[in-house]
Amino acid sequence: MINKYAKVTLLFLSVVFMLGIMAACGEDASSSGGDAEASDGDTVKIGALFDITGGTGDVGTPYADGEKAFFEYLNSQGGIDGVHVDLSGDDYAYDMAKGQRLYQELRDKDKVSAILGWGTADTEALRQQVANDKLPYFSASYSENLKDLDESPYNFLTAATYSDQGRAVLKWISENHEGSNPTLALLYNDTAFGQSPIEDIKEYAAEVGVEVVDEQVIPVTATEAQSQMLNMEEKNPDYAIIQQTWGATATILREAQTLGSDTQFIGLNWATGEGVVEIAGDAAEGMIGVVTHAFPYEDLEGLSEIEEYLESKGESLEDVSQKFIQGWVTAKIMSEGISNAEELNGEGIRKGIEQIKDLDLGGLAAPVSFSEDNHAGTNKVRLAEVKNGQFEVITDYFSYED
């Protein structure tokens, strides 16, 4: 018979054994750091930096709405092969210091496996941390610098870079301009975003015979730009490329109308969209814009799931803008990478994204492809012109290399 002391000893050893098993399990769960905690097998956590109230909130707000809407829709359809996507994000108001703090919170507190970012300055500043933390990063910045895999091994570009957009515009000008050699002005803001493509545009302009005759720096939040536009008018350029968001672009167009300018204004992607027409009114007539993503009033297969989502909210495609679609598409590409991933952590998702080949987005954007050696999904764009108060697409997808 086992005496009472033996029973106590056996009970003690059993407790120690169970505690040892529990401790071992806990050690296994955390031994790989943030990656192991990023997903519980049924959920994958994605972080996001939004600009809602900052200097680019005019386009940042509908873009953020599109990202959030896509994941809400995706989860309502069963997630990614049954895996629920938990999106954690906040407004960093286009402030680099706030962006840095938010990134660290998403990494350390929320334990995310990938991030949807926003601005050029913060995206470029975070590149080394992103690489060290092994967090795939889709930014709304299309800076050419993000193509450098030595500096940005976990950054991915989901649309043509600003520089590639500018090169495509220059190709179009060189092929369509009538008369003597075309002249060009560059209108941009004094931020990393505004400056990003300028030197590349000037270099390519020299290659294709377009003379850059003027540059004007206009704040991203500008509500007037009379002096800058007067300076530009003295040079009388045939074309002006605008690297701004809707608000400053509308300011430029209104000032140009007041001056009676006959320059052809061409906005890169963040200058293009319904918002600039709403703000500028008839001053936007004739503006040409770079189109990286579809307008909601186009007849495209890819709009059907957006329409289904909006109807579930009592809304329609008339209630959203091109920037909403841009955010939706970015989130959709991320979900494809997650679907390809063998492990739902940063490294696994990176490898999953690199497996994406000619992803058909139903016309919502140019097909994208990635690989271990190339994280730039596409360099193709379309062009559209404002006619009777609405952007109408005037080209198919093309690149400066076509």
UniProtKB/TrEMBL annotation:
Domain Leucine-binding protein span(s) in chain numbering: 43-389
Does the keyword section mention tRNA processing?
A: no
Please list which residues make up the signal peptide: 1-23
Q: What protein does this entry describe?
A: Branched-chain amino acid transport system substrate-binding protein
Q: Which family does it belong to?
A: Belongs to the leucine-binding protein family.
- Keyword Signal included in the entry's annotation: yes
Q: Which domain of life is it from?
A: Bacteria
Any one Pfam family here would be Peripla_BP_6
| Keywords attached to this entry | Signal
> What CDD domains does its record include?
PBP1_ABC_ligand_binding-like (cd06334)
